[in-house]
Amino acid sequence: MRTPSGNPRVRPLSRKFLRAVWLLVNQSLMRMVWSSSGSAYGTGMRRRLLTRRPPKPPEKRWRAVDGYPGHIMKTEKELREQLKLMDVVIEVRDARIPLSTTHPKMDAWLGNRKRILVLNREDMISNDDRNDWARYFAKQGIKVIFTNGKLGMGAMKLGRLARSLAGDVNGKRREKGLLPRSVRAGIIGYPNVGKSSLINRLLKRKICAAAPRPGVTREMKWVKLGKDLDLLDSPGMLPMRIDDQAAAIKLAICDDIGEKAYDFTDVAGILVQMLARIPEVGAKALYNRYKIQLDGGCGKKFVKTLGLNLFGGDSHQAAFRILTDFRKGKFGYISLERPPL
Q1: Which residue range(s) make up the domain with 224?
Q2: Predicted structure pTM score
Q3: 159 with 106, same domain?
Q4: Boundaries of each CP-type G domain copy (predicted)?
């Protein structure tokens, strides 16, 4: 085939062809170097090849949240508008990590609005931890309710408290000559802390999509509870950046952020070290469950050994097993945070 000027058109070489040529030349060069065993050239080249250090891998920095989901950014703007309509705000947190599952902008968003704090998954912490957290928030003047979204424990108490806190709404409306309306309560919090499950328990039927993973709820939804209470189900709200890496690791351990945001092996190794330091668990409980000694307190080595023993060397699968066991309560009632002194 020729160009308009009459010259033959040359086809560009493909990457596949160039790579094949490069490999062929490289193999020929290596054979030439190793075959010249007696020459100074061959000896020098072999010495350089054998003593050359591998390139230093880039420094690995663990990032708690890799990216900021677009639907959360959109929801944050909508939430600020919906807050103007709310009579009471119900903030849901994970009872295992109550301090790490509150948004840094929460106080600024709520202002002087009435707030109810819900610590969900009460079945995963001990009674002592529950009492300690109840006293801590009572000193701050925050009304707290412990719930179990799966079984519905505490759900009805939450509904009654929301109505009582906003009971003066219709009184003020009557004074202004307005008709009474339903109390509006917004349920907000981090992803996968149990907001939608809590609403479904309040309604006694599945209205809101709920699953044991972050990011199921993608848009706001108003639902009606009886004749006098409207509830707003909102997507999980994450800050754009989590600077506290200790809090970010706890979020990953408790499955309150997406799995793509963290490395399973790193997080599971840190969890092993945390469990070993908890008196109720300790290295003995880890050995009883996995038949592996915690050598020198190194969690990552523990995960690697478990992968070799049970999963054919797959550390990722071993890490997933440890995290799943913790999330299902196989190590007992454990709170990863304590109230500040």
Answers
A1: 69-233
A2: 0.71
A3: yes
A4: 76-240
Digitized pLDDT (tens) for each residue of the chain, 341 residues in all: 554 455 555 456 566 666 776 667 666 655 664 555 454 445 555 444 444 444 444 444 444 344 445 555 666 777 777 777 888 888 999 999 999 998 888 888 888 888 889 999 998 999 999 999 999 999 988 889 998 877 778 878 887 887 777 667 777 788 888 888 888 888 888 888 888 788 777 777 665 554 444 444 556 778 887 777 888 877 777 776 677 788 889 999 998 887 888 889 999 999 999 999 888 888 888 999 999 888 777 889 999 999 999 999 999 999 999 999 999 989 888 889 999 87
Amino acid of residue 64: A
- CATH of residue 215: 3.40.50.300
Rounded alpha-carbon distances, angstroms, from residue 176 to 17, 168, 169, 171: 82, 13, 11, 9
- Decide: 236 and 192 in contact? Cβ < 8 Å: yes
Task: Give phi and psi for 328, each to the nearest 5.
Answer: -90, 5
Which strands, in side-by-side order, build the sheet including 88-94?
143-147, 114-120, 88-94, 183-189, 229-233, 221-225
